Amino acid sequence: MPSRAVHTRHRSSSDVIERVKMADPNVKQTGQKSVKIAAGAVVCVESDIRGDVTIGARTVVHPKARIIAEAGPIVIGEGNLIEEQALIINSYPENILPDAEDVEPKTMSIGINNVFEVGCVSQALKIGDNNVIESKAEVGRNVILSSGCIVGACCQVNTCEVIQENTVIYGSECLRRVQTERPQVTHTPCVSAEDKQCYSDSSSLHTSLKRCSWTS
């Protein structure tokens, strides 16, 4: 029988999204020294990147995607796809205020070949490889997403647990099954994005950013 996800009370994604919306729109850190983009990555100008963020090679960040390093750095590995209006945020726990003193920053680590679909919200501090967070799905801060997992469209996972490898979470009740085969997640970097402007790094993580054309 499929198991049902158990929900615990943590800072809701709606709270996080509202706080991001209330932030100063003029504070956009794409292109600043705190954002490091590897050679071969594609990050569109219309994305919103704030704080200490590292983006690996062949990772693609679509327009209107948001990556917010609030409570600590975010390190994104190679070959990830972050679609329109997806939100990846390293946020403070519910019981800690952003201006609190002596708060140790925690690094958010995202592996390789993950897909963050349109409108999803990911606060998980540890994500492995080959995962898919589908459209409008939400993954909480205390979740560790291992590898080969799929969080289905509109599913919410706000538990404090490690999600077993190759787990599929689906349906209105967030039922779970384990796949028998490891998924192969691939993507084509330039999908339906004609004439978009982007930033890409010209040689290495620490060299200056330059404009480029994103064509299909």
From TrEMBL:
GO cellular component entries: dynactin complex; kinetochore
Subcellular location(s) of the protein: Chromosome, Centromere, Kinetochore; Cytoplasm, Cytoskeleton
CDD domains listed in its UniProt record: LbH_Dynactin_6
InterPro entries found in the cross-reference section: DCTN6 (IPR027777), Trimer_LpxA-like_sf (IPR011004)
Keywords assigned by UniProt, alphabetized: Cytoplasm, Cytoskeleton, Kinetochore
GO annotation, biological process: mitotic spindle organization
Keyword Secreted among record annotations: no
GO-annotated molecular function: dynein complex binding
Cytoplasm in keyword set: yes
Primary location: nucleus
Family: Belongs to the dynactin subunits 5/6 family. Dynactin subunit 6 subfamily.
Role played: Part of the dynactin complex that activates the molecular motor dynein for ultra-processive transport along microtubules.
Protein name: Dynactin subunit 6
Record organism: Cyprinus carpio
Origin organism lineage: Eukaryota, Metazoa, Chordata, Craniata, Vertebrata
